Amino acid sequence: MTERSWTEIQSLAVRAATGAQVPPAQALAFGAMLARHLADGGSEDPLSAALQAPDGVVTLAHKVETMIEQASLSPRIVTVCEADAGRRALLISWLASLPCQVEITASADKVRARLCLSEPSARARPTRVSIGSALSQQLQDLAARTYVPDSAASRRGGAGAGLMELD
Amino acid sequence: MKDFAPEMLSLRKPVEVMRLARMGAMMPTRLSFLRVLVRRLCAERASIAHTHWDMSPDGFGRAVYSVDLGGHTYSLVAISTDLPVDQRSDRVIATAWDAAFVLFDGIPERSDIDRIALQAPLQEAGRFGPRDLVLSRANKSVRMWDATVGALRNGTQPDPDAIRDIGYLMRTTAVYGNGKFGIADRHLICDRPGLDGPFAAEMLAVYMIRHFTLDLVQHVGGASLDPRLARHLGVGNATGLGMAPFLVTHPVLFNNWVLARETAFARVRACSDLTNTQHNRIAALAERAARHLREWHVPAPDHDAALRALEQDWAAFRPRLEALTGAQPLDTVWRAAENQSISLQELLISLLIEAFPEEVDSLADCMGDPFGPLTTSFAGTDALRRAIEIDWDWALSQDYDAPDACCRFWYVSAAKLEPRLGDRFAEDGAELETPLDIARRVAALHAALPAQDQRVSTFLEDHPEHAHACARVATLARYPYAEIRDNLIAATCRPIDMLRCKLSFFGASKFDPKSDLWTRITLAQGAPLGNELSPEADDWWLPVL
Fold first, then answer.
1. Is residue A123 part of a domain?
2. Is the ipTM of this complex over 0.90?
3. Hey, are the CB atoms on B518 and A161 less than 8 Å from each other?
4. How many domains does chain B have?
5. Cβ of A161 under 8 Å from any chain B Cβ?
6. Which chain A residues are within 8 Å of B143, Cβ to Cβ?
7. Residue B512 near residue B299 (C-beta atoms within 8 A)
8. Is residue A99 a contact partner of residue B374, using CB atoms and an 8 Å limit?
9. Claim to verify: residue B135 and residue B207 sit in the same structural domain
10. Cβ contacts of B420 on chain A, cutoff 8 Å
């Protein structure tokens, strides 16, 4: 296990999800979820599995979107079914990572949540987040798929380009 | 701070404010983050003291400075190294610098200093911990450095013209905060008084780096700088594309910056019955702005020509600021400025905000975003379509298949994981495009919406690729200044406009664009020195020498 900042973990996870072909909005949300999940001591196995099946990430994202929509249209407890324990754990972390207040209860195959969309979340974030080497490597490998190799043209455009710094 | 909301006129419309052309003309204000930070230091009558100084006669070694702010102590650990001339580069891909810095939480032990001395010179390749708040590095302006050392060694002072021309002894090429490379996440410090504003820790580091550069040059020169000259030496910065996407990827934060600035301007325009003191203050600031423009020259002919034009326009406009009449004289003068250039308008906004601290300063407390977007879903796809047609009409009016409308693509380079901008038709990598093409995405969402109203979630189940655009529409519906209302992948998009906007919010002055992609600036020029921090010292908008 290594210790990382929250921002490092979240940013890397967004990149990794993008590298796994998850669309942008879902990748952003996945990054926040992954950091929350690890910070709360969640298992790394369902995270790793999700990155290997990006359609599952999109499905999870859609479940959360649907819950937010239901809460937007009529404030009440919203319920979603998720039989798989790993994905259910991710769903809970996903809800817990939202910027708004969320009260979550889970049962054998359901997750219930009361979302207060106009109230900010008060969930604390830790000083460091621990991540295992296998998941960390998986994230880095997927993230690397999103980087573009340097070219002469790109180097010409950056700060400092074309000057010797003797001014 | 007032405990009531001052009167204000209506805010300017986002479609007027959030345009690249206007962003590219913005000026620093008293709400700029460095200004707010220094004002706080002044209010607390803080003083910067070096607690460790182990420097060779030539200025290589270690130094530690500490300052108390908001009940906490922060320390700048500075590592100065002997950098071969051929390694001195402003590029983010550089691997060695004249000096490296860490802003440390508390007072570092010897072991902390030793650790930082090993890691800080490595910068992005180093590893940092939760007590390291900011990581930075800087290169000397060799011309200014040598001239200053030479003058001090000869028992004289550096040439004021050189100080006006260059403005700094060292130039930072990156100032990293918020969790990068293991340093502390912002959420760990964002509740602390003084560090609660945007980029406050980074600004504190910059201000202390400036203090260090002044100490170091006097150490090497063996004599003291005239405080009047020292005050005019800030910290330079070279900023490239890497900074631009931040404004797109942090829409709520960006909204809050602009909203605070626009609220300040609306409050000031509502002022009536100006006192003689206020009349005199405005006239004095107008004169200072004129002098600042006279002293602001840049090498690029086109940018210098624009500055000279602004200088002339300002000279012609200034009499209006000396004859303020009517019920709301500042709104009247603004109406007159609406026929002037955008550059003059932005200068005037900055000046008017400067003149009214009582109406403005408390707004600095509203410029952060501790929560993220608190949005709700649309009732259905018809409501989503209406929102797009109201707020995004500017995005719908373009043909994104036209080469000029989609020429650029933003991406992250493999070399240093930095944002870059490519030519879609001439370079590889467009398939890995970073989703900053917000306008194009919203137009595509609009085109894909079904004729028959349905739940947005139902639509997104079949079209998950539109969720990003959908989220941006929801965000803009609540945060009106959250989006740059221009096509960021058009051939005409100039990232320098985004940089100018962001840097003006930081408090930068003396913008010195080197291309459409990067610029040099000066920070903290004119700011009170480390032993001058008192409330009356908060008067360094557009400094002159």
1. yes
2. yes
3. yes
4. 3
5. yes
6. 166-167
7. yes
8. yes
9. yes
10. 148, 154, 157-158
Tokens of A3: 């210790």
pLDDT tens per residue, range B73-125: 999 999 999 988 777 776 666 778 999 999 999 999 999 999 999 999 999 99
Boundaries of domain holding B308: 252-367
Closest to B473 in 3D by CA, of B438, B518, B498 = B438
Structure token pair of residue A111: 């997750």
B141 vs A contacts (CB less than 8 Å): 167
Rounded to the nearest 5°, which phi and psi values hold at B32?
-65, 150
The whole-number average pLDDT for the span B358-362 is 96
| Cα B417 versus chain centre, distance | 21
Q: What is the C-alpha separation between A63 and A55, in angstroms, rounded?
A: 12
Strand pairing partners for A106? A111
| Mean pLDDT for the stretch of residues A121-141 | 97
Q: How distant is the Cα of A148 from the closest Cα of chain B, in angstroms?
A: 5
A67 interface with B at CB cutoff 8 Å: no
DSSP letter string over B149-188?
A: HHHHHTTS---HHHHHHT-EEEEEEEEE-TTGGGPPPGGG
Q: Select from B90, B180, B182 the Cβ nearest to the Cβ of A163.
A: B90
The dihedral through the CA atoms of B320, B323, B324, B327 has a sign that is: negative
Q: What's the token pair of residue B358?
A: 């009582």
State pTM to two decimals: 0.96
Give B362 to chain A, closest Cα distance, Å: 22
Q: Which of B344, B367, B390 is the last residue of a domain?
A: B367
Same domain, B51 and B188: yes
Q: How far is A85 from chain B (nearest CA, A)?
A: 22
Cβ distance of A161 and B515 shorter than 8 Å:
yes
Query: Strand pairing partners for B136?
Result: B101, B175
Gap between the Cα atoms of B288 and B511, Å rounded: 17
- The answer to whether A121 contacts chain B (CB < 8 Å) is yes
**A82 within domain boundaries:** yes
Q: Does A164 touch chain B (CB under 8 A)?
A: yes
